[in-house]
Write a structure and sequence with these properties.
α1 crosses α2, α2 runs antiparallel to α14 and α3 packs antiparallel against α14. The protein has one domain: MFS general substrate transporter like domains (Growth Hormone, Chain: A), CATH 1.20.1250.20. The longest helix is centred in the last third of the chain and has 33 residues. By secondary structure, the chain is mainly alpha-helical. 76% of the residues lie in helices and 0% in strands. It is built from 15 helices and no strands.
């Protein structure tokens, strides 16, 4: 791998570490403000909505300047959103409870993340040849999931009684920081992690890739995005990989909150320990991602689809386990299956997007689809929580949906290959 790849990995690690630690800290802040239980999954909803609303614009923005500069600017927006959380008790919003300001501040973090993502993934296709994309995605996804593991665990540790008491015991001479609660102490540490990510962003090399001058008129950007959207969905390889990644990220975001609720109701664990279980499943994703990077070449990417069906079946076993060693083993297995089937699909989608479109625009289309899936599935989950559906019923419905959806995608892929037996020849072709 080129040296610049490792700088990108470091920048992505620290930015993702902060994102995931911040989610736990923001949930703790909602608990502190006595927000209703159904609001917790909507926290991620507010974070994600920018990916959908801005999808037509962030691709053009990512391609308008060197990707390292884009990543620096958008990481700064995330840091600003993180800092806004400190003002939850100082800003009064007419007719709204204080926890709604937390939701809006977290939406600012999502705004930065939405613009960060096309640059983060798009730079890989600029820097590396197609034959290295699966390996690169394996390492990026593995490192990202490692940051999810460490970020969720870090968030849980920072809001835990021992560490938070230690952080709150610090006093600056003649300065009243106004930091009085465990969530606020955690958010302070997380702001510094975003700062470290920004320093790595500044060190990312310019790949030399340049694209035609990007349109600025909103209507033109929407038309261009619609063209990119239909181009990827009409491509017989792009549509399969896009369908799988769309399903995966919607299911993955929902599973995050299912694990927290399951830990609370089924295992009687507090938020700080439930966050560690999130990290355990993410560890499995990292293992599956690295394994896929080693043994699955790009040309055999669609061969991993049956693993998605197995993941849905294994998820349903959660309702039968309560012995903690078995809980850990099951969550690692679920994560490993997820990581193993999504990494080759992600690499295939990036390759087809790069061949058919451009780096930034193809990732923007991918983000739009994936995050519409996240919004829909989180909204449905929040509705089930509001209706007091038992967590075991939620888990069974979730597992059945994932397995059924992956089965339908396999049928779809088989039909495409019957229509064009030589379809796989498109994999690995160079950009026209």
């Amino acid at each position: 791998m080129k040296r610049g790849f490792y700088t990108i990995m470091a920048a992505q690690f620290f930015s993702s570490l902060a994102d995931n630690a911040l989610l736990i800290a923001a949930i703790a802040l909602l608990f502190q403000l006595q927000g209703p239980a159904w609001l917790t999954p909507l926290l991620k909803f507010f974070f994600t909505v920018s990916y959908v609303v801005l999808a037509a614009f962030v691709g053009a923005f990512a391609d308008s300047m060197p990707k390292g500069r884009v990543m620096f600017a958008t990481n700064t927006i995330k840091m600003a959103g993180c800092a806004l959380l400190f003002f939850h008790d100082l800003v009064s919003l007419p007719g709204l409870a204080p926890y709604w300001f937390v939701m809006l501040a977290y939406a600012v973090v999502g705004l930065g993340a939405a613009a960060y993502s096309p640059a983060k993934y798009g730079i890989l296709t600029e820097l590396l040849p197609p034959e290295q994309l699966v390996a690169a995605n394996g390492w990026i996804e593995g490192l990202t999931v490692a940051s999810i593991v460490l970020g969720t665990v870090l968030g849980g540790v920072l809001i835990g009684p021992k560490v938070s008491a230690y952080l709150l015991s610090f006093d600056l001479p003649m300065v009243d920081t106004g930091i009085d609660t465990p969530p606020e102490a955690a958010i302070t540490v997380i702001c510094f992690i975003y700062l470290v990510a920004a320093l790595f962003n500044l060190a990312i090399p310019d790949t030399g890739a340049r694209y035609p001058t990007q349109a600025r008129a909103p209507v033109r950007l929407l038309v261009d995005f619609a063209h990119c959207f239909t181009t990827l969905w009409k491509d017989k390889l792009g549509q399969i990989s896009l369908a799988v990644t769309t399903l995966f990220w919607g299911a993955g975001a929902t599973l995050q909150f299912i694990v927290l609720k399951w830990a609370e109701q089924h295992l009687n664990l507090p938020l700080s320990q439930g966050a560690i279980l999130q990290g355990v499943s993410a560890l499995g994703i990292a293992m599956g991602a690295v394994l896929a990077a080693r043994i699955v070449p790009l040309k055999r990417a669609v061969g991993v689809l049956p693993v998605g069906i197995a993941m849905g079946v294994v998820v349903m076993a959660m309702i039968f386990v309560s012995w903690m060693p078995l809980v850990y083993a099951l969550l690692v297995l679920v994560g490993a299956l997820a990581g193993f089937f999504v990494v080759p699909m992600n690499a295939l989608l990036q390759h087809r997007g790069h061949v058919l479109l451009s780096a930034g625009h193809s990732i923007a289309v991918q983000n739009f689809n994936e995050n519409v899936s996240i919004l829909v599935m989180l909204a449905l989950y929040a509705l089930m929580i509001k209706m007091d559906v038992h967590i075991n019923a939620v888990i069974v419905l979730f597992g059945c949906f994932v397995s059924a959806a992956m089965f339908l995608v396999m049928r779809w892929n088989a039909a495409n290959h019957r229509a064009d037996p030589h379809l796989d020849r498109l994999i690995g072709e160079a950009k026209h």
